[in-house]
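Worked example 2:
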Amino acid sequence: MKKEYKDKCPSWAQDTMLEHCLILGDDSDSLLSCNLLEYITGGMWRINWFYDFETIYCHKKTGLPSIGVDMAFIKNIKTFDNHVSRMNKRSDYNKQCLNPNLLAGVTLSNYTQKYAMSTLLLIMSYYDVPLPKSQLGKELLLCIDVAFKGHYYDMFKNIHHEWLDRLGYAELIDVLNERNPQYFYNLITSYHLNDKVYIQDGQLHTDIDLNAISRHIGFPVWLPNDTFNKVQRFKRCGQSSCDDLPPREDIISLAYTSKKYISYTYARRD
């Protein structure tokens, strides 16, 4: 990651020798990001929470600080994230969030300038993790959160390349030039990368091909075998207008998933 961006990142991200609990989300980007963080920290940061944007589950009470992984918490919670979460530059935001869009001042007002790649690539870049050695490993990395997509749209190609350069991964442009979008969508299907992580009888499950991905991505990929217990349910919503949002103090996470759509989760008062 270029120094001008890394210097703006919240300092907690350097606390890799202090124990933290990771909050896992429900997709491949969050899972692989959690796996990488546990690998980088030698197990000092471990998955202890699971958040599927409707319910939060906990493995065990620890009293340790927590870190959200690939989720747009709007309160003062440590988190790695890649979403656009501000309407404009006057909007309040989570100062503990390590998010390239916050670092670059991207809001709904300049949405087309956004970082439109994975949280996994963000974390790799911040911790200077080298790209996978194999071509397939690099291609799988570009499949996570459809990180390849912006390259193939004339409107977004330049900003997509700028972000790869800021991350220190400009060599991925050559990989993108050798393929087409359908190639990557076929990889996503083959490795079940769009499948969800979910809870059943207290256990985490997924159909994502974790073993196959582990052979190519450059670090071990797995799903914890721990038992998770329900802590609290939330209400998950989406709408096309900023009008009639719940009170900010009730909102747990919020992201502008397009210029005309907001996805959010809030604490139910019923």
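The chain is about 30% helix and 20% strand. The CA atoms of residues 256 and 262 lie 5 Å apart.
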